[in-house]
Design goal:
By secondary structure, the chain is an alpha+beta fold. The chain is 52% helix and 15% strand. A 3-stranded antiparallel β-sheet has the order 1-2-3, with helices on one face.
Length: 96
């Protein structure tokens, strides 16, 4: 997900689905909207006997990651300063 200064919202893109896009005022809202769009696209593909892209079937959006304790601490402090969860902070840094 990427922040759009022009639209003043987060944009979520589903590349496996011809770059279908949705948006949200927050990362959480954009992610929720993307999940809903993905569910609708999968349901529509199943109804019409269309191919479901492999990535859409196996990616959960969950990722377990081991990182050095010092890096973990630094990221946690940055997230706290920004007033967001560590997860949200990491996602925004990866997307940005």
């Amino acid at each position: 997900m990427l922040w759009s200064d022009e639209d003043e919202c987060f944009i979520a893109t589903l590349p496996e689905w011809q770059n279908a896009r949705t948006h949200g005022a927050t990362l959480e809202e954009a992610a929720k909207n993307a999940r809903q769009v993905l569910e609708m696209l999968i349901a529509s593909a199943q109804r019409h006997g269309e191919r479901i892209p492999p990535a859409a079937r196996r990616l959960s959006g969950n990722l377990r990651l081991r990182l050095p304790v010092l890096l973990h601490g630094r990221l946690a402090r940055e997230a706290e300063r920004e007033g967001v969860s560590l997860n949200q902070w990491i996602v925004s840094k990866l997307a940005g």
